[in-house]
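Handout, page 2. Input:
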Amino acid sequence: MSSEQTPTTEETTGPRPRRLTYAALLAALEGLALVVGGVWILVLGLTGHPDDRQQAVTGGITLVVLALLPLFAARGLLALRSWSRGPAVITQLMALPVAYNLLQADSMAIPGGIALAAAAVASLVLLVNPETTRALGIRGPGNSGSVEK
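Output:
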């Protein structure tokens, strides 16, 4: 079993850093926002009079399914699983263009874009922090832990 497959325990990494807890909280909030948005679109698509009911239902289901990525990442971050940083970073990188598009709108979406951009940037800063990386047991390139001659 490689070191990447070995579950990380608190005995080997120490207590969970506060930065990691905050990153997990932000990822969970983004996941919950996606669930709420997806359910909202789904309900409006089924009960309202959308231009295209099938598109509204598909969009709502898609948002709910997409919410699984940050929610699983948040759970993994709280459990100090090294695999969880990748999905968390990917979620934040996907959120940045969405925030940009929201900021380009001339509507009530601008505050949402500001909040999403702030959360994504804050999460990225927290996730790439060296303290977070150490707590998750992630080693950088060239730091495999074994010396080869």
